[in-house]
Design brief:
Strand 3 and strand 4 form a beta hairpin. By secondary structure, the protein is of the alpha+beta class. Strands 4-3-2-1-5 form a 5-stranded mixed β-sheet. The protein has a domain of 75 residues: Ribosomal protein S16 (S16 Ribosomal Protein, Chain: A). The protein contains 4 helices and 5 strands. Helix 1 packs across helix 3 and helix 3 runs antiparallel to helix 4. It is rod-shaped and about 130 Å long. Helices cover 64% and strands 18% of the residues.
Length: 179
């Protein structure tokens, strides 16, 4: 039986996520599978991969062929590197401890790189939020100045009307007193 490691689509329209499965190559994409070894969610940033590392390594070692996308996912998680290192151990090029040490070094380097990317994205979000806040503060200041100007104009108009009314009342009193 020819086995493949491939993605089985789940989710709904415009929000697909995938199960990473080992299946007979003749079965349908979302059909019967032998074992589910993980999941892949490309909708998050960065894409979230949940993988049973030991089971994926087992299936790759026994000859299951990953599809191109799954091969990229497995490479990103280190399964393909571990298979390569295990091949070196089998040939006697180095020891299993050396292989594990090389894998741990690779994993630390990858985690550091991903940490920098995540940190850079977080800094971008903070900078964008600060810029948006500064823009909002400027807009609020402009609106407050405009409202204060309108209130001052209304108060001036009310004061002018009161002065005019007082002048008219004084003129009317002067007229009454003059008669």
């Amino acid at each position: 039986m020819a086995t493949k490691i491939r993605l089985a689509r789940h989710g709904h329209k415009d929000y697909a996520y995938y199960h990473i499965v080992v299946a007979n190559s003749r079965s349908s994409r979302d059909g019967k599978y032998i074992e589910r070894i993980g999941s892949y969610n490309p909708n998050s940033n960065p894409a979230k991969v949940d993988l049973k590392f030991d089971r994926a390594l087992y299936w790759v070692n026994v000859g299951a062929q990953p599809t191109d996308t799954v091969r990229n996912i497995l490479s990103g998680e280190g399964v393909m590197l571990m298979k390569h290192l295990n091949g070196g151990v089998a040939k006697g090029a180095f020891t299993a401890e050396e292989a594990q040490k090389r894998f741990e070094a690779w994993k630390a380097q990858k985690d550091a790189k991903n940490g920098k990317i995540s940190q850079a994205e977080a800094e971008k979000k903070v900078a964008a939020a600060k810029a948006l806040l500064a823009q909002e503060v400027e807009t609020n200041k402009a609106k407050a100045a405009e409202v204060a100007k309108k209130r001052q104009e209304a108060a001036d108009a009310l004061a002018a009307a009161a002065v005019e009314a007082a002048q008219e009342a004084a003129a009317a009193e002067a007229e009454v007193a003059a008669e």
